[in-house]
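Person: Please comment on this record:
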Amino acid sequence: MTGTAALVAAGAMCWSGLNHDVRYVLGGMRASGRGGFAASGVFVHRPLAYRWLLSGLDHLTAGPVAVREAWIRALVIALTAALAWWLRRGLGRFLPRREATAVAVAVGLVLVYAPAWDFLQPEWVAVWLAAASLAAGLALRRTPVAAGAAGVFAALAVLVKYTTAPTALLPLGALFVLDRRRGWWAAAATALAAPAGFVLAIAVQPREWHWFNELSALNPDTPVQQGLRAADLRLLAQTVGTEALMNPAVALLPAAVLLLARGAATRRARWAWPLLTGAGVAGVLVALVVQGQWFQYHLAALPVLGAALCGLAAARATRDAPHRVPPALVAAALLLGAAVPPAAARPLPWRTAHATAAYVLLSVVVAATSAAAWRAAGARRAGTGSRARRTTGAGAGTWATAGTWAAGVAALLAVAVPAWPTTPYSFDTRHADFTALERAHDRRDLGRWLASVRDRIGPDTPVTYLAFGDVAYLLGNPTHCRYPTPDFLQRTRYDREITGQASYREDLRCVADPAARFAVLDTSWFPLPAVAPEVAATVRGHFACGRPVAAYPRFHLVVCPRG
């Protein structure tokens, strides 16, 4: 029953759409692609490896926007199912079958039911590639081949964003623990493949080098540029707290580590579990701090890590009592899986007013679950905790079956929390008013208006986009510019120093391109009075935004004819 429910939910998610950041990338590559630029030559705020991966997926789809998004979802779900099978096969060579299955299924489910804001982001793709790295490193029988394949996947996990390097270390650490020889060889292969991939990207597109150097200018107020401040520590705590609240696998991670550590056979292993897990989590948090934007998807590795450890802890705890999943994990998963979705679906003002209470209750659940897990693991080690082993008769079978069902329902509820259509991107922080359902409604309403604009100006008429990339995604008209979303121009509203960048000058020349017959301007995202005077003057000199041919005040959009 739980398996059927999981399949039905996965199918329903195919129609939940894509988040605005993924639409930004796809829309930019499509618009510039129609203008004559390959994906390798388009700036969409993401490295070449990520652009190629998404472009490849995009080229496998066709039809209206909703259908193409459903196809992308379905393709990724199928690939993730294959990945889980491959990971199960690899882990099965080094772990008992029950443990290998539990980890692989947990990883696959959490990847498929990822939060709407996480899905297909570079961080999510890096986690997927990290899981593939571990699968390759374990499943392939010849050590040189396995290590080489693991290294290539780990290198790709780095190259999809560079700040995803800590995620690439997770499978290498797991490989090292399970097979030290393969771990060393995979690390060496990664150390060779990652720089080679970066050099290849620059050879394919020389602009990749100055894009790499100028990218940080688009986000100037980060701890790297300004130093770590008290406000950054507060934002770090808020972001991690939100991640734990919206992803029960993260909240249960401490309890899983305690179960594994307390149940370990040796003193060395008991210390290794918290130290290695802590190092992995710290690496992900360092990447979050370095970027300084405090987006939830920057922590996309934590739910997968937490789910894998929870699956392993549950399977290991039931080694001698197959139907007795740790009650602490089951109870906490049931509680969070049942309580978080309705609370998260409440209006943002309600969530903001009750945020402190929500995080306090979450802390109590995490602490209580961890304490219960510690005691349960200690009782098992002492030989007094397995009541199931001492129970016989018909009643034992009934309770065992009930326990198995409860564990399955709890796991599915916990995993599905981020996938509810009413679950916001965050509880009360960044984009807390965005949900998959709200994004789908916006796609429908904005898409209808942009379709009328397309009919009016012609589907092949070149335009200049002065709006976020999802406008290009829904309009679909070509642009003769490799900067389909004018990030370097728009950021001058915050930082005038960007005007010294080579990409800024190249982006500005696009505005003067005589081939563009119209400009699509988002007056909220790209306010002409706020951007650099040179930018505003260039826009006003080439487009008559005071006499728009169409306007949509709800989305702050105007379509400006050539001046």
Observations:
- Strands lie at 463-466, 518-522, 550-552, 557-561.
- The first helix runs from residue 2 to 13.
